[in-house]
Structures are given as structure tokens and as C-alpha cells.
């Protein structure tokens, strides 16, 4: 048998080994990166009474979804695609209308003395609502907040909200606080 | 003068396979870096809803998953066609969620426990009833940070 020069080895099986490893990784791993809508839930407190009566009706934006996935916004049926624009008007209340939320004065970094809306979005769904519809509504409400925040970021700092440093983002968060309250679901429509 | 010879009559010259391991190793490293280990095998059908305002879920070690959906056809004889909860590799009841959260929380570092996020991977045809029950259980277990797992889409519908 001819002797190989020292320091060399056959690389012929290297490809086989590498293929084996490659196939193992292809099978055992997944590619998808998890994305989603993050929410913070309120702590569980069974004794807590709903203190709705302390909040004025004009300050609450009521979104109801029934078991047939129909949406009722402030008592009026609405298409999910119109929800975003409508919610934006509620959040901003540009012309200080009587039926849209009140504003309170607040001191915010970068903005100084400004008027901040007291508006709250209340989302209520039925047990028979489909999850797909629920996510669509959640998405539109979050999108409404993101859009008004982006608009004020462009106006104030000339940059998109996502590109701003954290302290400026926090200031805008205070300017348009995101309050989406979820009431306990009701079983009206039946399952 | 050099002498040119034809190797084999009309046959293709052999391609050197010496660089093949390099190519395969390159692919291997690409897959090792860009993928994550599969942790559970889904026993349910899952078509996640689409959303436009999605954020990436950072820090995989802080995330626990709850899957909800219709059991796959092979499990339907045993578990029916109503949406079910899957924790890790097994079907579970709503009452099991609290224990699951505590076990998952125990696995984390003590200083990272408040950052724990529960990712809800729910099929979009599921009714909200079961999701609401799960959310109530999570609140009772004080796992308040949740994430509705969605696909990124450009526009809804």
C-alpha cells in the first residue's frame, strides 16, 4: 500500500459527512421568525368592579364584535377597513368636537405644555367571534395609534416614529397614550 | 514540446469534487445560523391570522408558546374536531395552563421572570371563547405579557 505524504488526508468522505450534517439541520430546525402583536393584560382581580360610570361617554370609544364577526362602533355598524380612520379621528380629535374625547393639559418633554386626550378605546367581543376577526380589529386599533404617532413624529422631529431615539418615542407615547381596554367577554350571540 | 492527449474518446472530462465539501459546509453553516431548533411537533392545524402592525419577538428564551387549533386529521378520532389547546407536545385543558406557566417560569432566571412573554399561536378560525378562557387563566397565573402570533402581511384581507 502506498504511503500518503504526512499531513494530508482524503477529503473524499468530507462531502458525505457535511451532507449528513446538512440534512440533519434541515430536518431538525425551522426557519420562521416569530412575529406578532404584543399586548399587556391587566392583573386578575375578581373583586374589581367595573368603574365605567366615572368615565364620560364621550371619552370612550366602544368597539363591539358579535358572534357573526360584525362590528359595531359607537352604536353604528362599521366595516373593519373603515375602523382605522375612524379610530384615528377619535384619538386625535383635531377640531375639539363635543362628541369626541376631552383633553387635559400635560407637561411632556420636547412638547412642553400640551393638551392630551382622555380617550379610551374599549373593545368587547363575543365568545363566538372568530379569532381572525378579533386580530383584525386589534390590528386596526394598534395601526390607528401607530399612524397618529408617526404623523406627530414627522411633524415634530421630521422623522418616522420607529427611527426616533427612545426618549423621543416615550414623549410621543405620552402625547398619544395607547389605552385599549378589553372588557370581560359576553355570551350574547350563543356559540 | 508538450504533448496533448485526448483522455477518453469524446467523453466529458471529470469534474473535480475537491471543492464539494466546501460548498456543502457553506450551506451547512448558513442553515445552522439562520434557523432555530424545532421544539414541538404541532398536532393541530394552524393557519395564523395576518396583521400589518407586527413586531418581532425578541429573546426566544423568555417566550412560552400556547397553540390552539383544530386537531389534525390523524388525531380527530381521538380528540374530535373542536379547537384544542396544545402545550409542548400534548393536548391540554384550560386548567393545565396555570401549571404550565409556573413550570415555564421556573425554568427562567429569577431576574428575567417579569419579562416572560406568552405567545398565543391560534388558528384564525378558532372562536374567541377558548382564547378568552386561556387569557383569563394567564391573568390568574399573572403572565400578563402576551403576544398574538401573526403573519406579516401588507394589508388586511
How would you sum up this structure, described in words?
The complex is a heterodimer of chains A (191) and B (157). Chain A is of the alpha/beta class and 191 residues long. Chain A contains 4 helices and 9 strands; from the N terminus they run αβββββαβββααβ. Chain A has a domain at 58-182. In chain A, strands 5-4-3-8-9 form a 5-stranded mixed β-sheet, with helices on one face. In chain A, α2 (80-92) packs across α3. The mean pLDDT of chain A is 80. In chain B, the strands form 2 sheets. In chain B, strands 6-5-4-7-8 form a 5-stranded mixed β-sheet, covered by helices on one side. In chain B, strands 2-9 form a two-stranded parallel sheet. The model of chain B has no long low-confidence stretch (mean pLDDT 82). Chain B has 157 residues and is of the alpha/beta class. In chain B, β7 (117-122), α4 (128-140) and β8 form a beta-alpha-beta unit. Chains A and B meet through α1, β1, β2 and α3 of A and α1, β1, β3, β7 and α4 of B. β1 (29-30) of chain A pairs antiparallel with β1 (36-37) of chain B.
Keywords summarizing the entry:
heterodimer, A: 191 residues, alpha/beta, five-stranded mixed β-sheet, two-stranded antiparallel sheet, 4 helices, 21% strand, elongated, B: 157 residues, Nucleotidyltransferase, domain 5, two-stranded parallel sheet
Shape of chain A: elongated
Helix content of chain A: 25-40%
Q: Tell me the strand percentage band of chain A.
A: 15-25%
Q: What is the first-to-last residue Cα distance of chain A?
A: 80 Å
Topology (SSEs and partners):
The complex is a heterodimer of chains A (191) and B (157).
Chain A: H1 14-28, E1 29-30, E2 35-40, E3 60-65, E4 71-73, E5 76-78, H2 80-92, E6 103-108, E7 112-117, E8 120-125, H3 131-157, H4 166-175, E9 180-182
Parallel strand pairs in A: 3-8, 8-9
Antiparallel strand pairs in A: 3-4, 4-5, 6-7
Helix pairs in contact in A: 2-3
Chain B: H1 20-34, E1 36-37, E2 50-51, E3 55-56, E4 63-69, H2 76-79, E5 84-87, E6 90-92, H3 96-107, E7 117-122, H4 128-140, E8 145-149, E9 151-152
Parallel strand pairs in B: 2-9, 4-7, 7-8
Antiparallel strand pairs in B: 4-5, 5-6
